[in-house]
Design brief:
Layout: E1 12-16, H1 20-28, E2 35-40, E3 44-46, H2 51-55, E4 65-67, H3 68-71, E5 78-82, E6 85-89, E7 94-97, E8 102-104, E9 107-110, E10 114-116, H4 134-152, H5 157-163, E11 165-169, H6 173-189, E12 203-207, H7 219-232, E13 234-237, E14 242-246, E15 249-252, E16 255-258, E17 261-264, E18 268-270, E19 287-288, E20 294-295, E21 298-303, E22 308-309, H8 323-341, E23 356-361, E24 364-369, E25 372-375, H9 377-390, H10 394-410, H11 454-457
Parallel strand pairs: 1-2, 1-9, 2-5, 9-21, 11-12, 11-17, 12-13, 19-22
Antiparallel strand pairs: 3-4, 6-7, 7-8, 10-18, 14-15, 15-16, 20-21, 23-24, 24-25
Helix pairs in contact: 1-8, 4-5
């Protein structure tokens, strides 16, 4: 591989993004004679695989996040800046900040991750939030818990049924984990907490456009996950593309599903920062990187994690957007920078696949370690140990262990708090939440009258329920 264009003494390395890739790259440079600046628009590192636990009230946000400064406080060659990066100017070796500030670099590592993609229908985001950050998780938690509260006060049986219907769109790991957790909340956690409604009668649907859920797993494990979800009461529908989402309903093929809570886990798109580079991108907006993780023609710029698209030499498939890929790429990029500092050539990145896993619910998971595949309680224990091992900070690991042990023994979830007011939502609220002048006749919005527009039903826009960038596989 090509060496850096010149050897720089005491080089300045800028790392944009303090997710798994960026953080592990910084740590790999801890004992090197270099200057490192880590830039992130948040002041904390987020353990994304546990976001669904926050969204479903099992954990609090502080349990899965740690201040970046705290993580790197002993790393004396590293400075942490809380700032948003607006663009990268490759020609001048500068990172442009949103507040017009600039950072010059000798080497650059871009690790800004991905967001959810609505396949050209961004108007769906307000109706079906995705799950990529703490704000998303808290919004989903608010919607889920508020739906039960609204159902408790709703006199119309049809409208109440819509409040107790939860639709998860996309059958990748995030979708499966969300659906399983929602089923557990309804069947166990809230079963005896209400007087008017019976939470165990809540309807949870998982809609997948493809022929099976968890498409990246072997078929036997995918089918086992489907059976586990069915055992929890989740309705799993495959070959079921969503054609439209509107206030109070999701359209799947020719069916209108009345619901006030739809959640999105059907696709991802790379951070928009990639578009400022002026280099080739794939359909998901990811940078097409060289085998050594650099941009073609710019050996000083590395792109890693969910922002990068690299085909694995052995499988001939793009590397998955999971935490272990980002961690290994972060370390490899840091090592290549140090090699360049010594005048040596870069090495190509080789991904060491340590297997994939997904949890379906309490004491249920699937694990694929290549030749070894298993499911059930043993798989759940392995999933638990691996994920807690990767949690940043001993305090977090201890807290999560204690909370999970309590949740497992008591079937209770300790973070069932509706802590912030709803933003103005486009969906219809029940009468008791509306000012008197805005009250409407419930029958207008009831599924029973079947007055939904025919337009969405006839739409031919079908969307694959893929969750290719879920970081929770390990």
């Amino acid at each position: 591989m090509h060496p850096h264009h010149s050897v720089v003494s005491n080089p300045h390395i800028v790392i944009v993004g303090a997710g798994f890739g960026g953080l592990y790259a910084a740590k790999q440079l801890k004992h090197r004679p270099v200057r490192v600046t880590v830039v992130d628009r948040r002041n904390f590192h987020l353990f994304q695989p546990f976001l669904y636990q926050v969204a479903t009230a099992a954990l609090s946000p502080g349990d899965i996040a740690e201040p970046i400064r705290s993580i790197l406080r002993r790393q004396t060659n590293t400075t942490v800046l809380m700032a948003e990066v607006a663009a990268v100017e490759l020609a001048t070796h500068e990172v442009v900040l949103a507040d017009s500030g600039r950072l010059s670099y000798d080497y650059l590592i871009l690790a800004t991750g991905a967001r959810h993609s609505y396949f050209g229908h961004d108007e769906w985001e307000a109706l079906a939030p995705g799950l990529k950050n703490i704000d998303d998780a808290l919004e989903i938690r608010r919607r889920v818990l508020s739906a039960f509260e609204a159902a408790e006060r709703e006199p119309d049986p049809e409208v109440r049924k819509a409040w107790l219907t939860f639709v998860v769109i996309g059958g990748g790991p995030t979708g499966v984990e969300l659906a399983g957790a929602l089923a557990e909340i309804a069947r166990y956690t809230m079963a005896r907490d209400f007087r008017v409604i019976d939470p165990t009668q809540a309807r949870i649907l998982l809609l997948e456009a493809g022929p099976g859920i968890l498409a990246t797993f072997p078929q036997d494990l995918s089918e086992r996950a489907g059976r586990d979800l069915a055992h929890l009461g989740v309705e799993v529908r495959t070959n079921a593309p969503v054609t439209a989402i509107e206030p109070g309903a999701v359209f799947c093929a020719n069916e209108r599903i009345a619901t006030h809570t739809s959640l999105w886990s059907a696709g991802v798109r790379a951070s928009p920062l990639a578009r400022t580079l002026g280099v080739p991108l794939d359909r998901a907006g990811r940078v097409l990187v060289e085998p050594d993780l650099t941009i073609k023609g710019h050996p000083e710029v590395f792109v890693i994690g969910d922002l990068a698209m690299l085909v694995d030499d052995r499988t001939k498939r793009p590397l998955p957007g999971v935490a272990t890929v980002a961690i290994q790429q972060g370390r490899a990029a840091a090592d290549n920078i140090w090699r360049a500092c010594q005048g040596l050539a870069h090495e190509a990145f080789r991904y060491h696949d340590r297997g994939s896993m997904a949890t379906i619910g309490r004491a249920r998971a699937i694990v694929d370690l290549g030749r070894l595949r298993f499911s059930g309680f043993a798989a759940w224990l392995v999933w638990l140990v691996v994920h807690i091992y990767y949690l940043i900070g001993f305090e977090n690991r201890l807290l999560v262990m204690i909370e999970w042990a309590w949740s497992y023994l008591t079937l209770q979830r300790g973070a069932r708090l509706i802590t912030h007011e709803a933003p103005e939502q486009p969906h219809k609220l029940p009468d008791w939440q509306l000012p008197p002048q805005e009250k409407k006749d419930d029958t207008v919005h009831s599924e029973a009258n079947g007055q939904a527009s025919d337009a969405p039903r006839n739409r031919q826009d079908h969307y694959q329920g893929e969750d290719t960038a879920h970081p929770g596989q390990s």
